[in-house]
Specification:
Length: 300
């Protein structure tokens, strides 16, 4: 039955990633106010707001809200299963319980986003909380995996320094994601340089944030490529190598999507959703790799 907990956690991870993509599409398409300022139901929807009208923006926002509710229910189910089968494993029990609490906070912030007319700062906070939820359910899924499947590693390979290095890569990817989310629907010409100049004129905070986003993306991409290569050279366990290689490749691909984002002048809601989804997937992979390395460190 312990496999049930891990499966639930993995389904919750997948559902959270889907929610992030739907949220990105909702914001990119301008559908965030599709239900007016009513929450959690839709103003003027069918069955008292339980269902949407056949109107594009309302349907998108309604889908976003009910997908969020689904993630909440999955997180609760995972926490219950964790309590039943892993209550003595704090590395599984605590993150699963914390995920439920953070989702409650996220719902409250989501309500504030609607009530405050989609304030950009609140929207970024809302996304940041989503990334915390994603990290917690990812850690739960890793912790619920079978310990018998962990390969033996020596002390020279399994160091806290390595865990810190991967953790820095994960943190960097998250910061780049959040910087991008703050200005994701704003067009800045030129790529890879902003305005095709080495240092643009920082006329407003949005340009400054976007410049930091691009510089950060370049630095983090180089760091992740280094970590992926180092994982092979240090003969890290196969699961870690796979996660880190996937994260590096995904981040590099997302840099390319960023270029397409500029070429299309930020005009594609689908591209916005995909760009955000890949960034979230990279974050989840790096969190999983960090958690996996920490599990090896705890072995006798």
């Amino acid at each position: 039955m312990r496999n049930t907990t891990r499966r639930l956690a993995l389904v919750t991870v997948a559902a959270t990633l889907l929610l992030v993509a739907i949220g990105g599409y909702t914001r990119g398409s301008g559908s965030g106010y599709g239900c007016s300022d009513r929450w959690p139901l839709c103003e003027g929807g069918a069955l008292g707001g339980m269902l949407p009208r056949w109107e594009h923006h309302m349907f998108i926002e309604w889908t976003h809200r009910w997908m969020a509710a689904t993630v909440g229910l999955l997180a609760v189910a995972t926490a219950v299963s964790t309590w039943r089968h892993f209550r003595r494993r704090r590395n599984v029990l605590w993150p699963s319980g914390a995920a439920v609490a953070v989702i409650g906070l996220q719902a409250w912030v989501g309500r504030m986003v609607v009530k405050e007319d989609l304030d950009a700062d609140l929207v970024s906070v809302h996304l940041a909380i989503s990334m915390i939820v994603l990290a917690l359910v990812t850690v739960t899924a890793v912790g619920a995996g079978p310990t018998t499947a962990l390969p033996a590693v020596g002390p020279s390979v399994n160091t806290r320094g390595w865990i810190r290095l991967v953790g820095v890569g994960a943190t960097g990817s998250l910061l780049v994601l959040l910087l991008g989310s703050y200005v994701h629907n704003m067009y800045f010409s030129g790529w890879p340089l902003v305005g095709n100049t080495l240092l643009p004129k920082f006329t407003n905070r949005y340009l400054t944030v976007h410049f930091a986003h691009r510089v950060g993306a370049a630095l983090v991409m180089m760091l992740l490529l280094y970590i992926a290569v180092a994982a092979v050279r240090r003969d890290r366990p196969p699961a870690e190598r796979l996660l880190l290689g996937g994260a590096a490749a995904g981040f590099a691909a997302n840099v390319g999507l960023g270029a397409v984002h500029v070429v299309t002048e930020v005009d594609s809601s689908a591209l916005i959703a995909i760009h955000l989804l890949v960034a979230a997937l990279v974050w989840a992979q790096l969190v999983a790799a960090t958690a996996q390395a920490a599990r090896h460190l705890s072995l006798p």
